[in-house]
Design brief:
Blueprint (H helix, E strand, L loop, with lengths): L2 E3 L1 H9 L4 E10 L6 E8 L9 E6 L2 E6 L3 E11 L6 E8 L3
Parallel strand pairs: 1-6, 2-5
Antiparallel strand pairs: 2-3, 4-5, 6-7
Length: 97
């Protein structure tokens, strides 16, 4: 498992003094015939149930990656948005069908 932290994402993490990064699968109830929507979320804290996550340390950051997510290439952590509307997202992981 290869994890790359993009330059802008690194600055975002430093500004928030984050050390733990959880990449998790979120299931959202849509209240329609589709059922649930699945998305990948990046949370700047350690997960509660560590057994459900793979762990890797990169540049003094602890990454916890949900075992349900499928790796399809190098995992790249990037920043999107600007000012107070910015957030992190990842490439290289796929939501299970």
């Amino acid at each position: 498992m290869k994890i790359i932290i993009h330059r802008k994402a690194l600055k975002y993490l430093e500004e928030r003094q984050a050390e733990d990064i959880s990449i998790t699968l979120a299931e959202i109830d849509t209240n329609c015939p589709i059922g649930t929507a699945k998305e990948i979320r990046v949370i700047l804290e350690k997960p509660q149930n560590l057994k459900s996550y793979r762990w890797k340390k990169v540049d003094n950051y602890h990454f916890f990656i949900d075992r349900r997510l499928r790796e399809i290439g190098p995992i790249v952590l990037k920043k999107q948005g600007f000012w107070k509307f910015s957030s992190l997202y990842v490439e290289g992981l796929q939501v299970p069908l």
